[in-house]
Amino acid sequence: MPVPTSTHIIESAVIKAPFSDVWTMIKLPRFAEWWSALEKSEIVKGVSDEADVYRFTFKDGTVQDVKLEEHSSLDHYVTLSVISSQPALSYSSVLSTIRCYPITSGELAGSTYVTFSGNFAGDADAGVIEDGRFKRRDALKDLAAFVAK
Questions:
Q1: I need a surface site. Which of 39, 47, 88, 132 has the fewest CB within 10 A?
Q2: What highest taxon heads this organism's lineage (predicted)?
């Protein structure tokens, strides 16, 4: 019997870099520049006339087409969904959001607070959820290291 688990996760980090340096990297074509798990990110032409679709090729050989669901330059977030995957996912869907906030006061003023959340379909098991949690933590570490250069 599957272990009951929440299908929503959120990971966060304070990145000691100016907001503008961090926010400029939160564009789907730029993910491969900072996320060490990715080999490349390229736009997929002709899939949709209404949305941006990118192909993420991971270093482990996984290839996923991700759709930009939302992008807000005002609220500083991007939301994406996986629309296809090779190998196939063991669950039916996931919606992920990366959001950035400038830290404007206190000892970390001038830094950036970043969240990376995931909303998985109810058929995702506990192993999928935990894997998603660790991948988001690793991505945030990679982003921090990249903008610190």
A1: 88
A2: Eukaryota
